[in-house]
Amino acid sequence: MDSLSRCAAVQCGLYINTHVLAQSTLAPIINSRGKTHAVSSGWVAGAQAASSAMASAMNGGGGGALKRIGPLRLQYYIVMGAVAAAVVLATLRYMPGPAAAAASSSVARPGASAAAPGAEAAAEAEGEEAAAEDGEREKRKKKGDGVVLFNFGDSNSDTGGVAAVMGIRIAPPEGRAYFHHPTGRLSDGRVILDFICESLGTHHLSPFMKPLGSNFTNGVNFAIAGSTAMPGVTTFSLDVQVDQFIFFKERCLDAIERGESAPVDEMGFQTALYTMDIGHNDINGVLHMPYDEMIANLPPVITEIKKAIERLHKNGARKFWIHGTGALGCMPQKLAMPRDDDSGLDEHGCIASINNVCKKFNSLLSEALDELRLTLKKSAIVFVDMFAIKYDLVANHKKYGIEKPLMTCCGHGGPPYNYDPKKSCMTSDEDLCKLGEKFISWDGVHFTDAANGIVASKVLSGEYSIPRVKLASLVSTAKSDD
């Protein structure tokens, strides 16, 4: 593991304000069964055993099968032979097709120089096949070449960060629709950010806090489920995520200055697209207040988002893609809360007061971004009206093939909302919708893969953007911009 991966693997304790936690996007996993929080000791024990055995063998000691290999000198030759073979195989694997075929023939076994007539044809066919594979690989690489994204946010764009930092072992049926196994996303599949990456021809963003399997060559995802824009409420609030970005950038540039490789270079940071989707948990945290107080608590949240963008700009960011909040009043989690009557519901069954707070939040955020366009020179700052996109899913659900727009796919209690705040989707007795059946809400808070796909297509279209531009245009012009 390189130094950057080790740095990203550092896991800090997570503090979350208890009231915000109760209403936050983390709520659906808080009551999950014990095994989802259990840290597997089997993998650790296995790794320690393997490490111990290898160390013992390389030192000429140990017992069992490793000891029967022979004395240290013989072990040395065996290991070096294996390394040499691996180098040859790796070279052939990534060598262009014709060259690979030629190399294969040049290292043929002794006495095989006069190969059978069919052998040359087979080698040529293999070479052509390998060349075709290389061509396809280059096409995919070219499409996503130079694409760099840095994302900041909460569970709407978390691709596994909260699972890594909290040590939560998220269990099935999470991930069932696309990945076919849990990935740390709070969904049955992809989040909107994943669809954005796919549209740009690059791989899904790796979480900054994920210690294994991360690939930061196309950027980093700093989003952590449960995070807020306001500092001091959660450990990984927006200001901390920006701190993490600055740290990552400094480490990359320091490594390059020392002549070492780094996943992102100076040009990558300059031309990257900086995406942000946060504020939902801040709104959740004030929903217990009277309406006027809820509205009064929004400006400080907007100020924090504005400050984060200014800090990123000071550190070289020039292209910003900022998502507003969705229609939180249409979430099953909110609708399942006790109420005296349905007078507070709108024509589509959503809680009007909560949605009004969301619309006010978006209005204030859009105004703040207008101000930043005047002060942050040589910058592109785009606001996306996520409320309009997500509310449309409910209001016109039949157009999208959705029959039950306010009901949870994976929850408890059945109609009308199938949501129980005391139980999570990951408990053994959940009421689970059929695979392939279209729902908006996965667990009462987060969207399904199907719903996120619909939302992402609208996000990418540019029809809901201010100014009206497509996301791809910001990326495709990255290399030509100052």
From TrEMBL:
Annotated SUPFAM superfamilies: SGNH hydrolase
Entry keyword Coiled coil: no
Acidic residues bias spans: 123-135
Positions of region (Disordered): 118-140
The organism's place on the tree of life at top rank: Eukaryota
GO molecular function annotation: hydrolase activity, acting on ester bonds
UniProt KW keywords: Glycoprotein, Hydrolase, Membrane, Signal, Transmembrane, Transmembrane helix
Family assignment from sequence similarity: Belongs to the 'GDSL' lipolytic enzyme family.
InterPro entries: GDSL, SGNH_hydro_sf, SGNH_plant_lipase-like
Pfam families membership: Lipase_GDSL (PF00657)
Keyword field contains Transmembrane: yes
Protein name: SGNH hydrolase-type esterase domain-containing protein
Residues spanning the membrane: 76-95
Organism of this sequence: Panicum hallii
CDD domains from the UniProt entry: SGNH_plant_lipase_like
